[in-house]
Structure formats: structure tokens, C-alpha cells
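Here we describe the complex-level prediction in full. Unlike the single-chain runs in Section 2.1, the two entities below were treated as one system.
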Amino acid sequence: MICFENVSYSTSGIDIINNVSFKLKKGCFTALIGANGAGKSTLARLCNGLLKPTSGSVSVGGFDTALVRTSRIAKFTGFLFQNPDRQICKNSVRDEIRFSLECVIEDKTEIGIRCEKTLQEFSLNGDRDPFSMSRGERQRLVLASILAAEPELLLLDEPTTGLDYRECMHIMECVSRVNKKGATVLMVSHDMEVVQDFASEVMVLNDGSLLAHGRTKDIIRNEPLLARASLLPPQITELAIRLGGGYENAVTVDDMVLSVKKHIRGAE
Amino acid sequence: MGGFLDYSPGNSFLHRLNPIVKIFLSLMICVSCFITDSPFFCIAIIFLNIVMAASAGILPRALAMLRTLIKFCTFLFLIQVFFIRDGTVLFSLPFDIYVTDKGVMFSLMMAFRLVGATLPLALMLSITKMNDLSNVLVGTLGMPYKYAFSLTTAIRFIPVFTAEMAGIMEAQTARGVAFDTKNIFRKIGLIFPLCVPLLITSVRKIEGAAISAELRGFNCRKRDSGYKSYPFRAADIGIILFAFALAAAGAFSPF
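The structure predicted for the assembly as a whole is:
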């Protein structure tokens, strides 16, 4: 779905991305992690052609982003920005979703059907003014308007920043649902718990270079690697690593519960 | 390079001038552009602006601004030149449209004046800290702090809003809105709906800034609250005299 070949990107003489190469298969859920300023958001913007590589090539869904307009790539990609206010431009929730659909679909009947379906699916009141909604609700609305267009590729730039646990789970469950239906997801995130719970693979970025790309279980247990990118493993993983002695394979809370139960039974 | 009106740090001769003198110089350059009838004088003023920008280390920004202004002025020139009916006809087009020598001269002067008068103020604001500007407006000119703060905040917010608009356009492009179209009229039509998010974000930002200032004791500030002083040096006096000479040259330019 996405193919980066020796991609570098620089602006105002500063190198942001250095010679990055990777491939993402259709239907995978990949998290992009790294310290602040590592180039995560830039890499996400390179994925849909908002930024064009200085050297190398980026191919998305078979299109070379340097040769195709971003609005063309947007027909099959969705991009959720950190700040939902930049995406909202209509005075009602319904109009906002319709506007998003109108950008990619021409059939008005289809637009109407999909709009009402999305409103129901995301429990949104179509007549509400988006700007009177809470931040979490606005983020949910923007995600709803993106998902209404049924994108094949979903790019998320720190989608859960500033949200409470309930809203965070709401957003992530929607994303997970879309991923299970076959959409490819690339999520920029600092929240290691969210990464651990939802991503199937992880890429670690440091100073614009790709440090590692692999299965979530392998990456988040690699403390030296995470330390190089100024990151810490999720608390449950850190606990498992520190405990050792059979617990070190536990990556999630469920894994840990099973390991502890097994240990207690063994002791009895 | 920095955005339009972002402060560009430096220690050049122009950077070291008293903020009042910088603003005075830029205003006098504007005045000289408007009182002169000579296109050559206007070209000289534009050249002076470029030299000043180069000496302050902001030449790339000045050239970028000049390019934008030239595009805008070319557009204005092309509109204006067909509306002046006086003078000798230089060439005619169908539907009683013609271009006269006076029309060309008037439109050319308008374009030159616009470039010459816009550049200096933008350049001077690029090399003046907004805090220094509000301090001299209050301390030296006696302007009430509230007004000085409002003025400098309005200037400070221009690059912020420019960046915000760029961010909004980026977000909408990612959504499929064809801002990357080459059709300029279509692009203008697409920009209008973006006024809503820009307005909302702007109002939120301004409200946040106002609350933040209030919580930090904004209303307690008096004229004597600033500790920084901005003395007039010999160079400042020299520049004031130069500014007057420039305005006089503009008024009496012989060519």
C-alpha cells in the first residue's frame, strides 16, 4: 500500500527525513513512534503527498506522490490531524460529513445514504454546531467524516492527544474496526499503551532515520532501542521485563494476568 | 528564512536603531513614494529597500515579498490601465477599449508606489521586536499601554494566522479539496469556506491570549512598568535627518 524508497526530505536547509525505506502491506495497522521532532508527522505528510520528497520516491496505492496531486490521492486516503479545528469548516455536523463525501463521491444519493449511516454509526447529532462540541467530540466528528468516505489508507497524526480515556478508546475502536474491514492504518503516536493495544507493527523513528520496523511485541520489549528514540515501554511491559523469570513474555495486561495465574498455580 | 513579519534576529546597523526611528524611517519612505511624481525616484526607493534588507540580513525574505508584490501590482496595473481614458492613445482593442500614455504612467506609478511603500514597513517590523515596539510607543510616544499592546499583538498575530491558514489548507487538501488545482478562480472559490475555521481558530487564540494576559496582571501595568530604556544615539539622529532629506528629494525630484 505504501512504499518508501530512500526517501529524504529537507526544508530551509534542515534535513527532516534521512534516507528512509519501508513497505506497508495492505490491511496492516502500523504505529509510528519516536521522540518529539523525530520527523513522524513529516513522514505521515509524505505518505499522502502533502509533502513531496526531496529525494527518493514515495508510492501510495500505486501512485507516485511526486507525480500525482494530493487531492487525487485523497480519494482513497484519509488523514486525521492532531487539531480537528483545521478540518471542520461547516456549520452543522451533517454538512461537515456531507462536505467530506462531496470531495470524493459524485453521486448525491450515495452521499445522503452514507452521511446518515455515519451519523448513526458514530452516534452524532446531525443538526449540532461542530464548534460548540467538546474537543473529543470534534475529533470524533472529523474521524467520522473521514471514515464516511471509506478510505483504503488511514493516516492518523496523534489522534488521541488531549483526549480522556473514554474518548481515546472510542476513537481507537473506530479505527480498529475500519482496519479489520481491510483498511491500512498508519498512526503517529506517543501513547505506548495505545500502540501496544492496537498496532500490529511498529516503526521507530529517530532524528529522521528509521531505527526499526517490526512486530509490536518485539519492538516494545526492546528497551535499548526505545531508549535511543527517547521512549519507554508501556508500564506493563516494563514490569514484565523487570520481573523476568517467565514474566518477560507478557506484553499486555491480559498476558500478565495469565502469567501470574500460571505462576500461582505452579507454586501451589 | 522565517515567515512574513516574523522577527529576524541580528545585530546590524538597522537592528540597533531606536524602534521609533525605524518606524519613522519606514513611514518617511512611504511618504516620499506618494509625494513624488517620478517613477525613477520610486525605483530608487525600491532599490534602497532591497539594500536595507541586505544590510539587515533579510534579503531572501525581502526578495520573496518583492516577488509577491510584483505579482499583485501587475494584476492591479492590468486592471487600472484600461480605466484611464485621458491622454494620447497608444493602442486600441475591440469594444472601445484602449490604452493611453497617461493611463500607462498612472498605473505604473501606482504599482511602483505600492511596492515602494509596502516594503519598508514590513522590513522594519521584521527587524524590530514587538516588545520593543510597544515599549517605545508607551514610554516615548505616551500611547496608553492597552492600545500599544493591541497594535503589536495584531502585528504579531499576522504570521500566526498565515501559518494557521496554511495548516487549514493542508488539512482540507488532505480531505480531497482541490487546492492544488492550477485554476486560480477555482482556487479562490475554494478558499472562501475556509474563513470559518480560520475565524473560529483566530477568535479562540485571541480569547486565550487575552485571558492569559489578564491572569498575568495585564491591567496592573502602567507607563513606568517597563524597565528597558531606548535612548536616541547619533545614528538615530542621522537616520531621522536622512528620512527628512528623502521626503524632500521625493517632493522635488527633478526627473
